[in-house]
Design goal:
The chain is an alpha/beta fold. 56% of the residues lie in helices and 9% in strands. A five-stranded parallel β-sheet has the order 5-6-7-4-8, sandwiched between helices. A three-stranded mixed β-sheet has the order 1-2-3. Magnesium ion binds next to helix 8.
Length: 485
């Protein structure tokens, strides 16, 4: 794709490149559609047009800066991976803003129906008859930026509730039902990356808009800053302030971004006060609690902590399983429980990664029409799983095995001999032999100072059982995969 043929007519080459790229792109689009779903695809990705390839980089165009930023944030990596898989010479994707000359503006508008509806109440009244094309680029941007569109997938219905997030969920629901109730304003949601903060905020927005009559503005703190700076540049800060202060509910995502941006913080502080004083609802998210957000002005931190502060904790195994079950069911692809367990054990960092892994499996199953198996999972997710792999220790093996058979960890070292404790212990020995470089005597010592012959016996026993009993073999195999480095 990138190699040039000497003496080859440049125009012909450019045309050839274009048509080849178009074929690749249509294949990538099919995949993306399968991965993200029709609605999301139409809302965001259909608007991409393919530009030229230079060296190892392909340029893709989007009609607005906002779309460009969104696509870059949400799909940038995935686009890179898909292009690279399609055309190995392409290693990077550059996203640029450009409205394709041939594309009429209505096409762009029509492609984002949900956002239009969602933001309508907070938009400055546009001259009704003026077609979008007649607007200056700045105006168009201000309008589409005032509030980011809400992701239709992020609703309360699709949010899976478990111990780590039930409090935040309840608070979000409460705010959606009765915004501006005392004690819940502002609502401050915090937690690590990919744990559902944005999802909950969009869910609040969607719920409020469903009820009608309220105007909701949602945007990232970063967007807030860009909008503010843009307003200063174009000397329209007053307009900006008026617009923001006219909403019923203002949601600012990832507030930590404002750390060190003093002017923007100041502006946010004033907006915040004006809205709260006028009885409007504020919802804010951040990666830390207000008191831990050092670098935010004290007065702002104090005010942020004045309403309801709800944290979302790291996921538990149970929650990860529930989320995977829900998402697998929604996809219509049958994913065996063993595969879900495997994923929930392996990918513990956050829901986004878990979801990404599952989506890839599902896309793969759809694409090739093959059932999802443990083997296929290992294959398809090879790169993701590798990134999550660590060196396994005997302690970890003992813990996982005990967990799997519901025995106490201490039974791994104890002198008890009943089969219910001896069998898991033998499996742990077998896995220790398989997955670590420890010798029989060393392993014996880790299992309550047992003799090396006991370990050898245990290992042989497990091998025999695996040969006789496929269900047992599968159990052990699953454990091995989960622990494998
Ligand atoms: P954050 O904003 O905290 O970084 P997001 O809200 O963007 O995280 O969540 C990342 C992804 O994980 C989203 O696709 C979201 O739908 C999904 N997700 C997170 N938590 C849950 C949950 N409890 N139930 C269902 N999906 C979830
Ligand atoms: Mg987020």
């Amino acid at each position: 794709m990138t190699g040039r043929l000497e003496g080859y007519d440049a125009v012909a080459e450019a045309n050839a490149q274009k048509s080849v790229l178009a074929i690749h792109w249509s294949r990538i689009c099919e995949r993306l559609k399968a991965e993200v779903g029709e609605v999301e695809y139409r809302t965001w990705l259909r608007q991409i047009t393919v530009g030229p390839v230079e060296e190892d980089e392909i340029t893709l165009y989007l009609p607005t800066r906002f779309l460009r930023d969104w696509v870059r944030g949400q799909y940038g990596d995935r686009l890179g991976t898909l292009w690279h898989a399609e055309v190995p010479a392409i290693r990077r994707v550059e996203l640029q803003v450009a409205r394709p000359a041939a594309q009429p503006a209505p096409e762009v508008q029509d492609a984002t129906p949900a956002p239009q509806a969602a933001t309508a109440p907070v938009e400055p009244a546009p001259p009704a008859a003026a077609p979008a094309v007649a607007e200056s680029p700045r105006q168009a941007e201000v309008r589409s930026d005032l509030a980011a569109p809400l992701e239709p997938r992020f609703t309360f219905d699709t949010f899976v509730v478990g111990k780590p997030n039930e409090f935040a969920y309840a608070c979000a629901r409460r705010v959606a039902e009765r915004p501006s109730s005392p004690g819940f304003n502002p609502l401050f949601l915090y937690g690590g990356v990919g744990l559902g903060k944005t999802h909950l905020m969009h869910a609040i927005g969607a719920e409020l808009l469903r009820g009608g009559k309220v105007s909701v503005a949602y945007m990232s703190a970063e967007k807030f800053m860009y909008r503010f700076i843009g307003a200063i540049r174009s000397q329209s800060t007053l307009e900006f302030k008026d617009q923001l202060r006219s909403v019923d509910v203002l949601m600012i995502d990832d507030l930590q971004f404002l750390i060190g941006k003093d002017n923007t913080q100041d502006e946010f502080f004033h907006t915040f006060n004006a809205l709260v004083d006028a009885g409007r609802q504020i919802v804010v998210s951040a990666d830390k609690s207000p008191s831990d957000l050092s670098g935010l002005e004290d007065r702002l931190r104090t005010r942020l902590g004045c309403g309801m502060v709800a944290d979302i904790h790291a996921t538990t195994f149970e929650l990860r399983i529930s989320i995977l079950e829900a998402k697998a069911a929604a996809s219509g692809v049958v994913v065996p429980a063993k595969v879900l367990e495997f994923l929930a054990h392996k990918i513990t960092s956050n829901v986004r990664e878990l979801e990404g892994a599952l989506n890839r499996l599902i896309a793969h199953a759809n694409l090739f029409g093959r059932p999802v198996t443990l083997e296929a999972t290992q294959d398809v997710l090879h790169d993701i799983l590798k990134a999550h792999d660590r060196r396994v220790t005997i302690e970890e093996i003992q813990r996982k095995v005990a967990e799997h058979w519901n025995t106490r960890l201490t039974d791994m070292f104890s002198a008890r001999r009943g089969r219910a404790v001896a069998r898991p212990r033998q499996v742990a020995m077998y896995l220790a032999k398989q997955l670590t470089s420890r010798s029989y005597p060393e392993i014996g010592r880790k299992f309550g100072n047992r003799d090396h012959t006991t370990v050898m016996y245990g290992v042989t026993k497990v091998e025999q059982l695996m040969a006789q009993d496929p269900a047992f073999a599968e159990d052990v195999e699953l454990l091995r995969r989960m622990l494998e480095t």
